[in-house]
Amino acid sequence: MTQIVTDRKTATIEQRAKLFRGFADPSRLAILGALCGGPLVVHELVERTELSQPNVSNHLRCLLDCGLVASDRDGRFIRYRISSPRITALLNDVDALLELVAEGVEACGNYRE
Amino acid sequence: MTQIVTDRKTATIEQRAKLFRGFADPSRLAILGALCGGPLVVHELVERTELSQPNVSNHLRCLLDCGLVASDRDGRFIRYRISSPRITALLNDVDALLELVAEGVEACGNYRE
DNA sequence: GCGTCATATCATTACTCACTGATATATTAT
DNA sequence: ATAATATATCAGTGAGTAATGATATGACGC
Fold it and tell me: What top-level class would CATH report for the domain B2-83?
């Protein structure tokens, strides 16, 4: 019995971790940040993020599969947009938390240097 | 001028990414989840998360340096606690977002398999 | 002091993943 | 059909990091 409960909790933790990892990359955050200002097509994202086009496409594929962005074809363009206002809300929450812990996060050298 | 503004935005993105990475690990999420129920000493965290003691200590060091948890000495025990209710709020928001995108996140095999 | 419990540190190992460069697919126009 | 534009795919490479095992530090009681 306790095992079943434990398994369920662990699964949810894995999901949370995977979702957080979706946000835990500067390139994807740059893409999401740009899309928070409104829908954009791929080459616009490439310009604004200054990332390579294949790189942007790879990240978009990940974000799309994860359901964090949605896309619509517009002629030969493909326009991407944030899939839910909850995502914008989450990014705002992180900024609010960052106001409290920015210094510590900056200083933390245990992981990453 | 535009360069300076760009630099500032990039720096913030790096901070956000680093903070997200703090949450983007099953072990750290398990620790934070356990602490959401109230303060705990290390060996209690070891029991509940079923992680090794050095592993828990390593992650606690990271979480402590990042300012996500705080600690108080209690005799030969050290009691850890969530440092701000904003952290609990953020975890709840993620769960709310997960209700929308759980399937997609689960299915996303671009990164991680 | 000595032994024990509680926690922290550190080097090593193994794994994951972001980026690049080349190429493929799709759409539109001539 | 061909060319040009827009986007996607994929293998290979390199960097970062989580977990382990051994060890070190610290606090308490005898």
Answer: mainly alpha
